[in-house]
Amino acid sequence: MQGKGKLLFVLTVLFLILVWSSAYTAIRIGLYSFSPESLALLRFSVATFILFAYAASKKISLPKVEDVPIILMCGFLGISLYHVALNKGQITVTAGSASMLLDTYPVFVAIFSSILLKEYVNLGKWIGILVSFAGILLIAMGENVGLGLSPGVFLILISAISLSLFDVIQKKLLKKYTPLELTLYFFVAGTLFLMFYSGSLIKDLKTASNISILAVAYLGIMPGAISYLVWSKLISKYSVTSMSTVLFLVPPFTILIAFFYLNEIPTIFSLIGGTIALIGVAIVSFSDRLKVVFSRNKNVLKCGYEHITRKIS
Fold first, then answer.
1. Is the predicted pLDDT of residue 307 greater than 70, yes or no?
2. CB 92 within 8 A of CB 28
3. Band of the pLDDT at 79, cuts 50, 70, 90?
4. What is the C-alpha separation between 43 and 39, in angstroms, rounded?
5. Residue 20's closest CA among 179, 249, 236?
6. How many Å apart are CA 292 and CA 128, to the nearest integer?
7. Is residue 207 exposed (0-12), middle (13-18) or buried (19+ Cβ within 10 Å)?
């Protein structure tokens, strides 16, 4: 990657970081006028409409009948429950703390992959999981002034758990459908579940402020539909593992955006806890690669030692 290609890559990654980081502030603004449920419904109605418009120019197949139950479950977990819980949690939890809590979802992915898919979790990952939980406890103390979980922190952890279950369950479908097809299926399924809140949305729209409506529309367009399309383009060229490091830059930008737009400042406990939690996530995410590196270095040292001993003898 050279010249213009490298510059375009950097600008694209920066765009994604800013869009994802701004979502937490946009949610807080949307909650001024909308209930958590109606906010989620309006957001994904907009996002689904945009994806439908984009997919119209592509060859999209209908899902197989036997896959519909899993698709519905993924839509409920990854769209409906995840976003309603996140929205409810952000009523009381600051944007920055919400971002740091939600970024721990790879930890739960590792746990559920071990339970549901029988995937091996090495010692490094278990250490990372414990480190992350220690960080979560500190964030909870920062948001609640105590050792217990506040309702807001608990709800955001529910959203992280829901997202991780979605991530594990959808693996069964990844080889059958394209990323665009799956996302469209999930968006439609999740929006269908959210339609139960249509009455609440109609009621909220009658009194909603323009800034809240714009915030929710922005959530549907940018962090919803467009960021997905950009992300799918990137991971088609680069590995998901290498691109996942981008997620670690979201919380700092979230804190900055929330400070300028909402005048929110996380507590010192939240900042320290968030840092510790993300270190734990990094350990979980990269423990396999570190194991390979250490194994290679061990073999190199062993060969070097044997070579030296042969020379001496």
1. no
2. no
3. very high
4. 6
5. 249
6. 17
7. exposed
Tokens representing 115?
A: 């339970």
Spell out the residues 6+ positions from residue 296 whose beta carbon is closer than 8 angstroms to its own: none
Cβ atoms of residues 19 and 220 within 8 Å: no
**Percent composition of the chain: helix, strand, coil (DSSP 3-state, to 5):** 85, 0, 15
Residue with tokens 């490091």: 245
Q: Which residue has the higher pLDDT, 21 or 103?
A: 21
Neighbour tally for 99: CB within 10 Å: 28
According to DSSP, residue 117 is labeled: S
Domain ranges of the chain: 3-312
Q: What is the Cα–Cα distance from 135 to 88, expressed in whole angstroms?
A: 22
Nearest by Cα to 85 from 148, 93, 280: 93
Residue 130 has pLDDT above 90, yes or no: no
SS3 91: coil
Calpha distance 19→13 (Å, rounded): 10
User: Per the structure block, which two tokens stand in for 293?
Assistant: 């590196």
Task: Enter the tokens of residue 49.
Answer: 């409409």
Give the C-alpha separation, 118 to 213, whole Å.
44
Rounded Cα gap, residues 155 and 82, in angstroms: 9
> Cα(first)–Cα(last) distance of the chain, in Å?
49
Q: In whole angstroms, what is the distance from residue 259 CA to residue 262 CA?
A: 6
Element (H, E) at 80: none
Please state, as a whole number, how many other Cβ atoms lie within 10 Å of the Cβ of residue 248: 15
What size, in residues, is the chain?
313
Q: Which amino acid is at 276?
A: I
**Residue where the block lists tokens 């290609």:** 5
